[in-house]
Amino acid sequence: MLAGRLIPTLARTIPAFIHREPNLIPCGGLFSQVIFDVIVVGGGHSGIEASLAAARLGLKTLLVTMNPETIGVLSCNPAFGGPAKGGLLREVDALGGYAPMGADLAAIQCRVLGESKGPASRATRNLVDRALYSQRAKEFVSNQSGLTVLAGEAKEAKVVDGCVQGLILGDGRFLACGALVFTGGTFWNGQIFHGLNSQPGGRVGEPPATLTRPGLQALGHKMARLSTSTAPRLEAKTVNTKGLIEQPGDPKARPFSVLSGPPRNLVSCFLTYTNSETHRLVRDNIKCSKIYADDPVSAGPRYCPSLEDKVRRFPHRERHHIFLEPDGPDLIYPSGMPTGLSPEVQQALINTILGLEETNVARPGYAIEYDICDPTYLEPTLESRLIKGLFMAGQINGTSGYEEAAAQGLWAGVGAALRASGREPMALGRERALTGVMLDDLTVYGVTEPYRMFTSRSEWRLSLREDNADLRLSPLADSLGLLDSLRRSKFLAKKADLELFGQKLMTTKITPSMAYALKDQHNLPDRAVYLSGTVSAAEFLRRPDIGLKHLYGLVDGLAQMESSAALTLETEIKYQGYLTRQASEMRQVSQREHQSIPMDLDFRHVPGLSGEATEILMAKKPSTLGQAGRLRGVTPAAVAAVMIHLTKSMRR
Length: 652
Fold this sequence. Notes:
By secondary structure, the protein is α+β, with helices and mostly antiparallel strands. Among the domains are: 485-580, Orthogonal Bundle (Arc Repressor Mutant, subunit A); 595-651, GidA associated domain, C-terminal subdomain (DNA polymerase, domain 1, Orthogonal Bundle). The protein has 21 helices and 22 strands. The radius of gyration is 26 Å and the shape is globular.
C-alpha cells in the first residue's frame, strides 16, 4: 500500500536524471535541478526519524529503503525504553519525533524501572505489539508532507570536491540532493549465523545491503565489523506460566510522548531462570556457536550479552533471569536469552527452563555480523569530517538499540536539513541531553563493541532526567521549526504550571501545628513532621518522607496539577541543592566545552604539548576543547596549552 501510493509520484520526477550525468551543485546550495534536498537511506528507526525530521523542517525529502513494507519493523525485542533508553525516547519526543508516540500507541504493557534508585535512574519501559508499531510507522511516514518513499538499494554517495552531490542506486539511477543520511542497521553486509551455519541477511528472510562498503572506504571512512544476537521466539500456547513470577504493568507509568494518553496494560510478563543444566548444555555446545567458535564473529554487545557470553563470562552464576514477554498473540519472546547456537541446541536449552519444559521454539534465535563505519570520522552533528553533507546514524555508527538509533537519526536529519539549507549543522552538548552524551562518546572515543546508552555515562545525569526532557529540548525544537502546535501548547502549559505552583510552594507557610495534623492524616513518622518553627511548603517538601500529595490540602489547586509537571516540580524542589551545584559546574566547563578547534590546526606547532598528546590529538582531530579533554592521554595541561595557542591565534 505504501509503495504503491508513493513510488509512482517519484517516478514522474526522476526520468530526466536516469542514464546521464546530472548537473552538479555547489555544496549546501539549493537550486531547481536538485530533486531532493535530503535523501535518507534505510527504513529502520534511525531512517524514519531522520527523514521525518528533515521533512518537518520543510525540506523535500526522500527515504530510500530496500522494502517499504518493512519500514519500522522491530528486529529484536518487542520493547522500548529502560534505563537511559527511556530518556532518549523522551528527548526524541521533545524534538518532535515519532518513536515515543509509536511506542505508546502500540503499548501492551508499561512499567517504571529503578524508581527506588532516585530520579536520575528512574526509567520507563513499554512492551509493544510489534506488528502494530510497524503499521503505525508506515502510516506516519506515508502521511508526512514533503516525504517520499522509494524502493531501492543504495550503492554510493556521489561526491565532488569533498561535498555530497547525490546518491547512486544499485540499478544505476542517480538522485541529486543537498545532504545524504546513511542508516541501515544490521543490513550493511549482514551475515546471519545459526550455530556454525551462515547465510547473508539483514534480518531473517531479508537480504543484506552489499553495495555500499567500497564507496564509503573510497571516501576515506574506516570500516569495521560488529555482531549482535537475538533470542528465539516461542509458541505461546506451549508455555506454562503456573508457578512463575508474574510481572503486571504499572498503572502509574508515564507515556513516552506528551501527546499520548494513560498507560496501556493489557498483558503480564513472567519471570523464570536458567539453571545448571541449561549452562551445561551451553558449555558442551559453545564451540558450535559462531560467537565462540575457533573463527568467531566480531565483538558483540557487552551490555546485552548472548547466553553463551553469560555462561562463559560469569561461571560462578547459578542462574540468569529470563523474562517471558508476549510477542503478538501467538509468540513469547524470552528476553535475556539471545543466542547464536544451532536450532536443535536452542530447543534443548529451552526445555531445561522452568515453565518451558514442553515449549516449542517457533523461530530460532541467531547471531548476526554487520559492517559499521568508525564514528570518530564524524562530527558530533553526525556529519562526516571528510565529506560535507554526508551524515550517518544508527547501527552504522556502532550502536545497539532502537532508542539509540532513533535519537541519532533525528539529530542527523536535523543536521542534514540545515546543511541542505545552506546552514551549519548544530551539536548537542553533553550538558543538554543524553543524546548529546551519546553523540560525543561515539565521535570522541569510537567503539570496539556495540554501544549502549546508560545514565552512568553522563556526568550531569541528575539534570538530564526523563521528566524534564521537554524543558531542556522543546525550546530548541521550536526555534528550529521541529515542534508541532500541540507539543508546543503542552510544553508552554507545563512551564506555566511549574512557575505558578513553584511560587505557591515558596509563599505557602507550614506551621508546626499544620505539620502535626499531616502526621495523623497520612500516617507519617514523627521525624517527617517535626518543626521548630514556620517553614515554606517548598522547604517542607524537601524532607524525604514528604511528597507533593501530602500538601494537596494546603496549596490551592495543587491536586489538579498535571502529573508530568507535578513530578518535575517535586523533583526540582527536593534536589534543588544538587541541581544548583550541578548547574554551577556546567557553567564552569561550558566555555571550554564549546570552544571550537579548527580542523586544519597542526598540533605539532602548539608549544608545550608532549609527544603523546600531540600524537593523540593529530590522530583524533577533536573539534572542541571539551572533546580534546576527554581523549585518553590528553592531560588538562595539554588542553590548556591548546587553549592558549588558540587565544593567541585569534588575537593575531
